[in-house]
């Protein structure tokens, strides 16, 4: 294993920072302060902490020294749990609540604290029913049907996204994955309603900028309907008819002195229907006419 030269002790190929290095923790402390300064109104900080190739830390002198110091029996996965605990203490010291992706296993010598929030996405490393049984707070980010991936990417990995009707049939306590190693690929896990699932998140990854808004435009409404209206549910056809009407009203517009460039591009990407414009800058008129030819 060959570590990079930066203080994080790794590179994109290794896919893990050197969590045995004190310099890394010092750097993360500074980064947290900078992030908090920008997002100062948020009570939450999400540190990721998933899909790291922890085994690459084996044999690293700094990692080995920290495992010895913390009595971790040379287990790099216990070092990973130690990292989560230490980062949670760091985030709490800044009066924030830490969020992480599902990544730690249920079994482990070091106990993962219950005062963080777990974003459950794969139902692979730690199952949602086990996390609830163990008293963790969850945000449902179930791969199926809440991921929107690969729109506009030619020759890349297979686009994975689910139609509005599938999203509408989901509920906030249901977890499913397409990945064959997850047990939810065979049978979704349906939890009883519990206040420990505090919400849900739709995730859009690895898409072109042109594909982002169109891929989400008809998926976000049924998603938010399922998390805002968990008790009352109208038939999908009725819901979608209402969505058609509101969508048409929302994206049919006239513009007055909107600036031309960014606004017209945003409207176009969103699928808007510009009926007329009133601009006094020639460059703005030119941009609008490029995006909406024939607009009066």
Describe the structure.
- 38% of the residues lie in helices and 15% in strands.
- It is built from 11 helices and 12 strands.
- The strands form 4 sheets. Strands 1-2-3-4-9 form a 5-stranded parallel β-sheet. It has a 3-stranded mixed β-sheet with strand order 6-5-10.
- Helix 10 runs parallel beside helix 11 (282-291).
- It is globular, with a radius of gyration of 23 Å.
- The termini are far apart.
Strand order of the largest sheet: 1-2-3-4-9
- Average pLDDT rating: 86
| Count of individual beta strands | 12
Largest sheet: 5 strands, parallel
Sheet/helix structural class: alpha/beta
Judging from the principal axes of the Cα atoms, what is the shape?
Answer: globular
- The share of residues in helices is 25-40%
Strands, helices and their partners?
Blueprint: H1 22-38, E1 44-46, H2 61-69, H3 76-92, E2 97-101, E3 117-120, H4 128-133, E4 137-140, H5 143-146, E5 147-149, E6 160-161, H6 164-169, E7 174-175, E8 189-190, E9 197-200, E10 203-205, H7 209-217, H8 220-228, H9 236-250, E11 252-256, H10 261-269, E12 273-278, H11 282-291
Parallel strand pairs: 1-2, 2-3, 3-4, 4-9, 5-10, 11-12
Antiparallel strand pairs: 5-6, 7-8
Helix pairs in contact: 10-11
């Amino acid at each position: 294993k060959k570590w990079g030269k930066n203080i994080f002790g790794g590179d994109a190929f290794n896919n893990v920072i050197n969590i045995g290095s004190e310099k890394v923790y010092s750097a993360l402390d500074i980064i947290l302060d900078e992030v908090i300064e920008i997002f100062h109104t948020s009570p939450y900080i999400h540190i990721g902490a998933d899909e790291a190739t922890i085994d690459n830390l084996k044999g690293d002198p700094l990692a080995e020294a920290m495992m010895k110091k913390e009595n971790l029996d040379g287990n790099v996965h216990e070092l990973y749990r130690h990292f989560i605990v230490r980062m949670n203490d760091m985030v709490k010291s800044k009066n924030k609540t830490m969020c992480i992706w599902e990544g730690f296993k249920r079994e482990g010598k070091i106990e993962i604290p219950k005062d963080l929030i777990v974003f459950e996405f794969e139902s692979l490393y730690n199952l949602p029913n086990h996390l609830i049984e163990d008293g963790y707070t969850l945000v449902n980010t179930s791969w199926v049907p809440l991921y929107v991936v690969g729109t506009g990417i030619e020759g890349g990995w297979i686009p994975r996204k689910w139609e509005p009707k599938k999203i509408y049939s989901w509920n906030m306590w249901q977890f499913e994955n397409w990945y064959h190693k997850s047990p939810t690929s065979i049978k979704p896990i349906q939890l009883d309603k519990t206040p420990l699932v505090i919400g849900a998140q739709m995730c859009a990854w690895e898409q072109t900028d042109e594909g982002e808004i169109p891929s989400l435009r008809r998926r976000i409404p049924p998603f938010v309907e399922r998390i805002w209206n968990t008790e009352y549910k109208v038939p999908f056809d009725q819901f979608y008819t209402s969505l058609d009407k509101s969508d048409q009203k929302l994206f049919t517009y006239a513009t007055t002195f909107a600036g031309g460039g960014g606004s017209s591009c945003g409207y176009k990407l969103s699928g808007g229907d510009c009926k007329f414009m009133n601009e006094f800058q020639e460059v703005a008129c030119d941009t609008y006419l490029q995006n909406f030819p024939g607009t009066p």
